[in-house]
Every structure is written in C-alpha cells, then in structure tokens.
Amino acid sequence: MARSLNKVSLIGNLTRDPELRYTPQGTAVCTFGLATNRQWTTESGEKKEDAEFHRIVSWNKLAELCAQLLSKGRKVYVEGRLQTRSWTGKDEVQRVTTEIVISDMIILDSRRAGTQEAPSNFDIPESEIEGAGLETKKEGKSMPKEKLKAKDKKSPHKKGKKAMKVSNDDEEDMPF
C-alpha cells in the first residue's frame, strides 16, 4: 500500500469573525475565512500580488476556543487537512466545497487598539487548557503547561512575547 499525506499549513488573516454552531448531537463546530497573499515579480519586473481565500473549519474544544479568541483581521497560523464535501442545496442544486479542517491554531499577532481584548490562556480553567492541547510559547521556546509559573501569566497577546497554540487532537469527522 502506498503512503499518502493530506496536510495543510497556512498563515493568513481572518476575513470574517468566526461563526460557532453546534450539531444536533451537541458537538461544537466553528467556521471562518482566512486570506493568504502571494507576491511575485514578472520577467518584465512588474510586481504582482494575488490573494487566496480559504474556508476553515474546527471542531470540539478547538472550535470553542477559535470562536472565543479570534476575530476579523487577526493573523493566525492554522494546520490541518483538506476535505471536500458535497451536498444538495435548498434549490435542489448539487454543490461542492473544499475546506481546511484544522487540528492546530496559533495566534500570531497582538490585539490591535479598539478591538475586544481576548482573555489570556490563564483566564481559561486549567482543565479546559489541558483538554484542548493549549500551549504557550515564549521567545520561540515551547514551555510545557506544568512549568508555567505565576510570573509567566502575562497576556500572550503582547507583541513578540508569547503566542498561543491550540490543538484539537480529538477531532471528529462529522458533516454539518
């Protein structure tokens, strides 16, 4: 049997606020848009730029954290897999979409002036942090959750200080 890989890594800005919903079984699902930009120079020296727009989907605790911490314009790193699905719309037309189902998310920017301040990861109960795979990074070095001290309880949204990483290891593949 041949090996295969379905892995996507993106860095971009949210194009809209996340939308959190729940399936009939009570599973959280969050969707949001992410824009990535590409720049290049043609052979004639002309500079070109192009934007690509992606539909991002997260499940379970990662979905709830994305809805709580993200907002339009935020710069994030997401990692996951491509998924294509089809459905019949209300107008009886068959539709197909490709989306990125994420398993990891890292917030890369600090909060901008005039936006709602997101809680630091220390405002989230310890049991929820462990269940979601939340980690903090300080100056490029990953710190285990259990080694965080009171002096490290600064907001992870301060520029250049920390980034928050959120994982969803118990992701479910459920249509919505």
Provide a descriptive summary of the structure in words.
The protein is mostly beta strands. It has a single domain, classed as OB fold (Dihydrolipoamide Acetyltransferase, E2P), CATH 2.40.50. It is 10% helix and 45% strand. It contains 2 helices and 9 strands. The chain has helices at 60-69, 126-132, and strands at residues 8-14, 19-22, 28-41, 47-59, 75-88, 94-107, 135-138, 141-143, 162-167. It has a 5-stranded mixed barrel with strand order 1-3-4-6-5. A hairpin with a 5-residue loop joins strand 5 and strand 6. The radius of gyration is 18 Å and the shape is globular. Residues 116-162 and 170-176 have low confidence and may be disordered.
Using brief descriptors, characterize the structure shown:
176 residues, mainly beta, OB fold (Dihydrolipoamide Acetyltransferase, E2P), 5-stranded mixed β-barrel, 9 strands, globular, disordered C terminus
